[in-house]
Amino acid sequence: MTRIKKPAIYLALAFAAFYLFTKPASAADAVNGIFDGILAGADRLSVFFTNVLT
Residue 25 pLDDT more than 90? Predict the structure, then answer.
């Protein structure tokens, strides 16, 4: 498993660096979308727990 995991991580990092340097605006939009998704999920969780606890 480790023999596959380490090269896969390096490949993912290399792809991320390549994407960042070749298309910085698209990379920024992708990161912004990821953070928007995380924030939306956190908001939904807070609404859920607020409704459960009240």
Answer: yes
Give the separation between CA 34 and CA 31, rounded to whole angstroms. Answer: 5
User: What's residue 1's pLDDT?
Assistant: 61
pTM of the model: 0.64
**34 dihedral zone (left: phi>0; alpha: psi -120 to 50; beta):** alpha
Specify whether the CB–CB gap between 27 and 19 falls below 8 A: yes
- Per-residue three-class SS string for the chain: CHHHHHHHHHHHHHHHHHHHHHCHHHHHHHHHHHHHHHHHHHHHHHHHHHHHHC
8 A C-beta contact, residue 4 and residue 11: no
